[in-house]
Design a protein that fits this description.
The structure is a single chain. With 258 residues, the chain is mainly alpha-helical. The protein has one domain (13-246). The chain contains twelve helices and no strands. α2 crosses α12 (233-247), α3 (71-103) packs antiparallel against α6 (135-159) and α6 (135-159) runs antiparallel to α7 (165-186). It is elongated and about 70 Å long. The two termini are 24 Å apart. It comes from Enhygromyxa salina. Keywords: Membrane, Transmembrane, Transmembrane helix. This is Sulfate transporter CysZ. It holds the Pfam family EI24.
Length: 258
């Protein structure tokens, strides 16, 4: 007999995008998530506000064209202001997330597990029972990711100085980088519970890159909204739990049965 028709699965990018929206919607309707969410959102909001507003103020204060500046210099400085402000809005919340993950890792892990308990209680219990990654390596990996992100963001900013084409390329490059990094950060509690180190994480992120980009794009754009965006990071962390539950294996290092 012919096999029953299987519904066609959406492409990985679209699956990731859909899981981001479904996860954030779930977070809005779960009372268990609320308590853990408030601590995380408050910490990320304050840090993001300081980083983004401070960066934009410093940029505009130090890039004012002088009255005798040539047209090309003036255009270049204004391009730097525009691209730099966009980069600051994208980067600020993520730098705040990095900082919270480094200093207060229990905040995002608490929200992640609360969300996972709502979606898949057995898996949440299994991950929560794992010994997890020791604090030292966990902090080291987070700092290394932060250094790479800042370095690549500076490269995007420099590309943005190229007139017209550079402005577009720098903005698109920063959006891609931020989406990928946001998705990676939201998987940090998953990696931490399973004690997956940086080299393994890189391989894993490359393997699931399309789905992670689709997942990280709407969340990174949401976080970039001034003032409001960072307050919604708790929703994003619950979306990370949704992505793990629906898209990822229980433990990527375990061999699947033949």
């Amino acid at each position: 007999m012919p096999e029953p028709h299987q519904p066609k699965q959406p492409r990985p990018f679209l699956r990731g995008f859909r899981l981001a929206l479904e996860g954030m919607k779930l977070a809005l309707h779960s009372s268990e998530i609320g308590t853990a969410y408030l601590k995380l959102a408050g910490a990320v909001f304050l840090l993001a506000l300081v980083i983004s507003s401070g960066s934009i103020w410093a940029l505009w204060a130090n890039t004012a064209p002088s009255p005798d500046a040539s047209v090309w210099i003036a255009v270049g400085l204004w391009a730097l202001r525009i691209v730099g402000s966009l980069v600051a809005l994208l980067v600020g919340p993520l730098l705040a997330i990095f900082t919270v993950n480094i200093v207060f890792p229990m905040f995002n892990k608490g929200v992640f597990l609360a969300g996972l308990r709502t979606i898949d209680p057995e898996r949440a219990a299994a991950l929560g029972a794992k010994p997890g990654m020791p604090l030292g390596p966990s902090i080291g990996i987070a700092i290394w990711r932060l250094i790479k992100f800042v370095t690549l963001s500076l490269c995007c900013l420099l590309v943005g100085l190229i007139p017209v084409v550079g402005t577009i390329a720098g903005t698109v490059g920063q959006a891609w980088l931020t989406a990928r990094t946001v998705a990676w950060e939201l998987l940090d509690p998953y990696f931490d519970c399973l004690d997956i180190r940086h080299a393994e994480q890189q391989v894993f992120v490359r393997r699931h890159q399309d789905a992670l980009l689709g997942f990280g794009l709407p969340i990174s754009l949401m976080l970039a909204v001034p003032i409001v965006g960072p307050l919604l990071f708790g929703l994003a962390q619950v979306a990370g739990a949704m992505f793990v539950a629906r898209e990822l294996p229980v433990d990527p290092r375990e061999r699947r049965p033949a």
